Amino acid sequence: MALWTEAADGKRGRAVIDARRLADLAARVLPGLLFCVLLAAAWQVMAVRWNSPLIPGLRDIAEQLVTILRSGDAALQIGTTLARIAGGVAIAFVIALAVGLASARNRFARAFFEPALLLGLTVPGLVWALLCVIWFGLSLKTSVVAIALGVAPALAITIAQGIEAVDAQLIEAAHVYRLNAWARLRYLWLPAILPFLMSGMRLAFSLAWKVVVLVEVFGLSTGVGYALNSAFISQDVAAVLAWTLAFTVVVAAIEYGVFQTIERRVTRWKKKASV
Amino acid sequence: MEEKGLGVSAALRFEHVSKTFVRANGERETVLDDFSLDIAPGELVAVVGSSGIGKSTILHLAAGLEKPDAGRVHFTGCGRPRLGMVFQQPRLFDWLTVADNIAVAVNAARGDIAKARDMLAAVGLARHASAYPLALSGGQRQRVALARAFAIAPDAVLLDEPFSALDELTARKLRLLLQELWLDYAPSGILVTHNTLEAAFLADRIVVLTGRPARIKLVIAVGDARPRNTENSFFFDLHREILATLERSAG
């Protein structure tokens, strides 16, 4: 009898937890979904009311989307753009790590890099895109360098802030207990600056996307920017929106599939600590 | 708790140590001037004195967190001493479990991980081994800090007001726990505290600091063998004597 009661309680407990998870998921997803539905409905109302090729209906956009997906063009161009973004962000990360580390740990380095970082933050991505197209022409270098220049300053500042935010008391404890360089990196520095790294990488990807599209519009013959430019030249608004939608879906997949998964894994302790 | 894997208790020596800090406004303040103190192997010396007198500086010098401007701080009786330190706040890595917090220190000291597990049991936290520090109470976190300090089989343990952030009931329990650990591991140590009764109960010798720069005003050998009874009136007499010295010094 006792066993039965325990089993029943266990089942009931699991059911309660499942219901709570479902409610949590619904609370997170439904508002955003509602926004998207309302936006699509508003767009469709506009399209019907104006009946102009400048505001294509949802059906036209969907047809364009299916066309670029079926032809394989979407995969090719989006893949090309993502590869450029990955290359540029990787180089920006290496530079930003060095500059951020130096700025956070050394007063001279901070003063030395400050003008460069301020300049980097204020120069629009368009300027880097134009300069790199002029300097490097039609090559992979153009997009990668433009992205690195556009992204590195913001990333360096985020990394420096993360390093500065590491609790000095924990650094002292690591010193007293004689943790070696590897142990300090693994158990102290990385976990402490990881939230900053994650937000830095998100920022980097969003900035990189804006820069790479400009480079592809101005100087390259592949990529989402090139495809958008082609659609623009032919005044095909449905194609512009279809390409934007396709890329947005990929970016959302990266956000939820990569960034949020990594974040969840590395901050699991917070959830467990709060239970 | 029989096999404790005792560290070779080291003597700790401050020889004519001076330390001056430069404040943010450029003002120089000499905290210690020609300060000397010997701590014998296995001895726990409590340092008491008013706030800002330089008690924590003494600990930081012993831990190597500060360098003396003159004189030297060194350990004798062992090559490179294994140091355990318990701070006012537990200073645990919140992202590591209780067991991993201890294991990281034990690995760094090339200690015995199995003993680290025994240590968790000794401080009454065996069933919290896989918990994260933020899921524990303040007293439990300080137990973990104590376990970390002793799990490395330390030659010396430095205690920087370890129980001052806890309620009195929890602090009493942890003082008794610290006494047990000291009996089992017998490291050398310094206890910095504002609590003169705590100093009297835990220490073998009490050093009372007064003035700026700090001078040793009074040294009291406690002389009572461990384990000690917290209710012993002898500690209250000592407590009153130290307070009277501090009050006289304060004018």
Radius of gyration of chain A: 24 Å
Q: Which structural class do the helices and strands of chain B define?
A: alpha/beta
* Quaternary organization: heterodimer
The count of DSSP E runs of length 2 or more, i.e. the number of strands of chain A, is 0
Structural class of chain A: mainly alpha
> Roughly what is the average pLDDT of chain A, rounded to an integer?
90
- The global form of chain B is globular
Rg of chain B over CA atoms, rounded to whole Å, is: 18 Å
Approximate shape of chain A: flat
**Cα end-to-end separation of chain A:** 30 Å
Task: Summarize the structure in words.
The complex is a heterodimer of chains A (275) and B (251). With 275 residues, chain A is mostly helical. In chain A, 88% of the residues lie in helices and 0% in strands. The longest helix of chain A has 49 residues, at 2-50. With 251 residues, chain B is of the alpha/beta class. In chain B, 35% of the residues lie in helices and 25% in strands. Chain B has seven helices and nine strands; from the N terminus they run βββαββαααβαβαββα. In chain B, the strands form two sheets. In chain B, strands 5-6-7-3-8-9 form a six-stranded mixed sheet, sandwiched between helices. In chain B, β8 (205-210) and β9 (215-221) form a beta hairpin. Chain B is globular, with a radius of gyration of 18 Å. Chain B starts with 10 loop residues before the first strand and ends with a helix. Chain A binds chain B through residues 169-170, 172-173, 175-180, 183, 187-188, 191, 269-270, 272-275, and chain B through 63-65, 83, 85, 87, 89, 91, 93-97, 104-105, 107-109, 131-135, 148, 152, 158.
